[in-house]
Amino acid sequence: MSQHQQIYTQLLQEFEQKLDRQLKSKERELLYWIAENQAEEIENQTD
Q: Torsion angle of alpha carbons 16, 22, 28, 31, nearest 10°?
């Protein structure tokens, strides 16, 4: 599993737990984008 997918899965679980509901598709899209950015930042730091 890529760094991006790990971050996304983790965020998704945390948000669904806190909100106590399934996320809407727009919310999922936003989380996906955030996870992508975070993964890129982590990759840039290791260079």
A: -10
Q: d(Cα 28, Cα 47) in Å, to the nearest integer?
A: 29
Rounded-to-integer distance, Cα 4 and Cα 35, Å: 6
Task: Give per-residue pLDDT as tens, 1-41.
Answer: 799 999 999 999 999 999 999 999 999 999 999 999 999 99
- Report the SS3 class of residue 35: helix
Instruction: Indicate yes or no: pTM above 0.90.
Output: no
Alpha-carbon distance of 36 to 6, in angstroms, equals 10
CA distances from 40 to 25, 36, 47 (A): 23, 6, 11
